[in-house]
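Thanks for the sequence, V.! I ran Cell division protein FtsA right away. Repeating your input here for the record:
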Amino acid sequence: MSLFDLFGNSKVQSGTPNRPGVCAALDLGSSKTVCFISRAEQTAEGPRPRIIGVGHQSARGMKGGVISDLELARKNIRETVQRAEKMAGVAVSQVSVALTASRARGEGITLESPIARSEITERDMRRLQDAAIAEFQRPDEVILHAIVVSWVVDGRDEVSDPRGMYGRNLAVNMHIVTSPVGPLRNLLNCLEACHLDLRAVVASPYAAGLAALTDDEIELGATLIDMGAETTSAAVFSHGTLARLTAAPVGGRHVTSDLARGLQTPLTSAERIKILYGSALESPSDDRQMIEVPPVTGEGDRMNSAPRSMLNSIIRPRLEETFELLRDKLDVDGRLDQNHRVVLTGAAAQLPGARELASRIFGRSARLAAPHGLSGMGDAVSGPGFSVVSGIILRETRGAAEAFYGPPKLNAGRVRGKSRRSASAPSSVWRWLAESF
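Predicted structure:
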């Protein structure tokens, strides 16, 4: 199912690259809602986005990265976008939105077919991509991204671009990211109430990787870990593109909850203590350094105290669990590449010791990354917690290197020239063979 098949109206824009101009991105996280508005600037290296408007406030109506209260979420989105519009001095009618990886899943697909003429053309490549996407259809799921990982000519080595090459058979390896229909219907409902059109939906770890990773890391291979409030997600990049993604339902808010229980203190106090004193690393002075701990309401006004080592003994096991869950999910088929660098981003990744702990558990070097490639970002919104929304802006400005599956025209009921009712995999493949030969 495509986004067009799901919504079937002009609220969904086709997946074409943004022309230089104004674009808006929205990150609906569990702890904060962020809207960036950018304007593209032409440089010698191509268009570069400049942030001209920012809206940022605590999240309402969201839980686990999905909408839990429609009315609260609508109000939250409306206020956040209006703040960004006021700062930018422009009104926006379309937004591209991040979708948490806990609601998205990626899967690889390979499809091979003979070539009518010995020289491979772009038409051959496009038809093979469309046939692979048609074969991948899943009930009650929507395709968010269809990304070509590699091509194979006559069963030989993988190539990045087979155009102009000669061969008898062409195969495509694709990574397709999908989402359940329900969360997207709720999302569209909220946006329509705010008089906003949905331009695109981007899986959050994919967006974070576009902003936090360097070009070399994307090409040579890196595992991007986006640590949010209630979800920690991972995206593996290799050979210049997204290769896989996964998520664990654990985040920074779980660390705060553990501290609140372990120290017998309110959640707000536990969050403050975590930010000021928390660490996943041990220090010789931890047993001697005492931390003041406010009591739970109703237990009197007397301030409690606890050694810093107690904080760390609560924080470290939760972070270890988080990284071990992701490691096991990524290594479920023995495909965890030990040569890939680990890159941490997201607000929860700023906890001291998180980078060192990730490096130990994954067995390779790790670094903490903030978004780059954008200008005009103030200090308050340039940290790791804003990688997702920054990545959406970069994707819209530069254009996405994806095999898009959607109508070329918003009012057309056809997908790349094929009737929606005839987009089944077998018919697509046989029609291609018939046209080719």
